[in-house]
Design goal:
Layout lengths: L3 E3 L14 H26 L5 E2 L3 E2 L2 H24 L6 H20 L3 H19 L6 H32 L4 H6 L6 H18 L7 H4 L6 H9 L4 H8 L1 H6 L3 H19 L5 H21 L3 H20 L6 E3 L11 H22 L8 H20 L6 H29 L14 H19 L6 H10 L13
Antiparallel strand pairs: 1-4, 2-3
Pfam families: Proton_antipo_M
Membrane topology: Multi-pass membrane protein
Protein name: NADH dehydrogenase
Length: 487
């Protein structure tokens, strides 16, 4: 007989006490930030204001989009945390670290000086590490915090080295001036700087092989995990968009595309092996970050920013509701994937229709550049959604068709609106959209991506024990962050 037992975990010291003052004021402050960001976005489109503040700070469309995103998710998560962590011994510290992290992000996207960018990047990592280990009475939390901080510090050092090289050869510490003088910097220096920049971004966004810090960060309270997955881990997309001109000048976009693609494929596989709901979500995040880096590699930095915003909505909700999924149940044999002919026909028709609608709404009418990959992903997503609906036996055949059509039309229209809106916000950035010509490497990898996706859906990896074990071992957290210390 199958049985399910709901269990509750309480590993944090909760004490009956009043909500700290900072936890009470941070929430309205973040809602004010979000509201002001929306007003500033409206002014950005309707006025000719000078958005430069001296030489050290500059507000542009990218800054405003991140202001609004961070303000919204910060306010939502803060509202949740105020009640969720009520009585928690370290609730005030949690609020201070959260506010510090949010302010660091705002500084990062508005800074125009190399020292400010590196400093804010470091403090983003420092405050996130503090959130991971906020419960300092818990040995595993302290170990996870220190482990993550090591990665974040290495990322900051690499970013610093990259900007020092560029600044030295451009003879300026101001980012806009560095970009203006890129063509005067030796090509090998630009290449080295770009590679350092890429590794710094991959570390913070937990792409393979730097993913273990994220899988070891399960000690963070649920609101901290939501903030991490909805905001912090998207750092690579923001970093690569800020320095798109350096990546393009160094011809490293193909490298980004391949690295992001491999991560997206592998993380999708390993997600299916997880039994812990937070580990499932962590692997899902790694896969999404891989896809975001792929978009940067394709030259669509605007798509990467739109993706990280939408991923924030998706992942913040999943983490804040993850407590509903905690249960102990009897393992069940996975169902075999069976696709009937009519289902395959519908999946194909709706997938192609979804791709065509996406191309029409976003103006992607070329089959000879990298935009074809975005269209391909849309087709796969619509096809997968269609299959999930048409196999549902509780609906009549007519309902399945209409529900599938309604969902894919609504979803693609919403995504196209977000994509086009972000593109308008990034119009000042000359390199926000730089489609790349298709090469043999990109075409080969696109085929590999498709093959990997279908192997994952068919569950073939379950029939290969050595691969199953290899993938499972790949996703184990650091040993010092699991059952290492006595409670």
């Amino acid at each position: 007989m199958n049985s399910t037992l709901n269990i509750q975990q309480n590993t944090t010291p909760y004490l009956p006490q009043e909500i700290p003052w900072i936890s009470r004021i941070i929430n309205p402050l973040l809602w004010v930030l979000f509201t002001c960001s929306i007003v500033l976005i409206a002014l950005y489109f309707t006025t000719d204001l000078d958005w430069t503040f001296g030489s050290y700070f500059r507000i542009n469309g990218l800054s405003l989009s991140i202001f609004a995103t961070v303000g919204f998710f910060g306010a939502i998560i803060s509202t949740y945390a105020k009640n969720y962590l009520q009585g928690f011994k370290y609730q005030q510290l949690f609020s201070i670290y959260s506010l510090g992290f949010i302010l660091s992000v705002l500084l990062f996207v508005s800074a125009n000086h190399a020292a400010l960018i590196v400093g804010s990047w470091f403090f983003m990592g420092l405050f996130m590490a503090k959130l991971i280990g906020v419960n300092s009475d818990w040995g595993e939390a302290r170990a996870a915090s220190n482990y993550a901080l090591g990665f974040f510090t290495a990322s900051s050092v690499l970013l610093g080295a990259s900007l020092v090289l560029l600044s030295y050869y451009a003879n300026t510490w101001f980012i806009n001036s560095i970009f203006e003088q890129l063509n005067t910097i030796p090509s090998h220096i630009v290449l080295i700087s770009a590679l350092l920049l890429i590794v710094a971004g991959l570390i913070q966004s937990a792409l393979f092989p730097f993913h273990r810090w994220l899988l070891s960060a399960m000690t963070a309270p649920t609101p901290a995990s939501a903030l991490m997955h909805a905001g912090f881990i998207n750092g690579a997309g923001i970093l690569f968009t800020l320095f798109a001109s350096v990546l393009i000048a160094s011809n490293t976009l193909t490298l980004l595309f391949v690295l992001g693609g491999f991560t997206a494929i592998i993380a999708q596989f390993v997600k299916l092996l997880q039994v812990n709901v937070k580990h499932k979500l962590a692997c899902s995040t790694i896969a999404q970050m891989g896809f975001m880096v792929m978009q940067c590699g394709l030259g669509f930095f605007n798509a990467a920013i739109a993706h990280l915003i939408l991923h924030g909505f998706y992942k913040a909700y999943l983490f804040l509701s993850s407590g509903e999924e905690i249960e102990m149940s009897t393992p069940k044999k996975p169902k075999k994937l069976k696709i009937q002919f009519i289902q395959a026909v519908l999946v194909g028709i709706f997938g192609l229709a979804g791709a065509a609608l996406f191309m029409f709404l976003t103006g992607k009418d070329s089959f000879t550049n990298s935009s074809i990959f975005l269209t391909l992903v849309i087709a796969i997503t619509v096809g997968q959604t269609t299959y999930n609906i048409v196999k549902e036996k509780s609906f009549s055949f007519i309902k399945r068709i209409f529900i599938s059509a309604g969902l894919f039309i609504a979803g693609i229209v919403m995504y196209a609106l977000m994509y086009n809106g972000v593109s308008l916000l990034l119009h000042e950035l000359s390199f926000s959209v730089v489609p790349q010509k298709l090469t043999a490497i990109e075409i080969s990898f696109g085929i590999l991506f498709l093959v990997g996706f279908f192997l994952m859906k068919l569950g073939i990896y379950r029939k290969t024990p050595w691969l199953y074990v290899k993938l499972l071992n790949l996703t184990q957290p650091n040993k010092n962050t699991v059952l290492k210390f006595k409670s």
